[in-house]
Amino acid sequence: MNLLEAVEGKEYIVKDIVTEDEELEAFLFSLGCYSGEPITVVSRVRGGCVVSIKDGRYNIDTDLAKAISI
């Protein structure tokens, strides 16, 4: 299941980042989004969602959300 299918407010553990794009993977890693880390969908917005990773909140688009396997 990917992040787009997640329930708002529920904490999940990132299983994998599914992408061929190394820049995208490096960007997510810089946010603290990598395998084994907790992630929560705070809310859904047009074109993506707001997620909580560690102590930060980030607005990520649909493509990023699809790449995050939980």
List the keywords.
70 residues; alpha+beta; SH3 type barrels; 4-stranded antiparallel sheet; two-stranded antiparallel sheet; 2 helices; globular
Distance between the termini: 6 Å
Helix and strand pattern: EEHEEEHE
Gross morphology is globular
Q: CATH superfamily assignment?
A: Ferrous iron transport protein A (FeoA)
What fraction strand?
35-45%
Mean pLDDT: 93
Which CATH class is shown?
A: Mainly Beta
Total individual domains: 1
* Oligomeric assembly: single chain
Strand order, sheet with most strands: 1-3-4-5
Return the CATH topology.
SH3 type barrels
Count of helical regions: 2
| Largest beta-sheet characterization | 4 strands, antiparallel
**Gyration radius from CA atoms, angstroms:** 11 Å
Number-wise, the strands total 6
Q: Structural class of the helices, strands and pairings? A: alpha+beta
> Helix fraction?
10-25%
User: Which architecture does the CATH hierarchy give at level 2?
Assistant: Roll
Pfam family, one: FeoA
GO molecular function, one term: transition metal ion binding
Protein name: Ferrous iron transport protein A
InterPro entries: Fe-transptr_FeoA-like (IPR007167), FeoA_core_dom (IPR038157), Transcriptional_repressor_C (IPR008988)
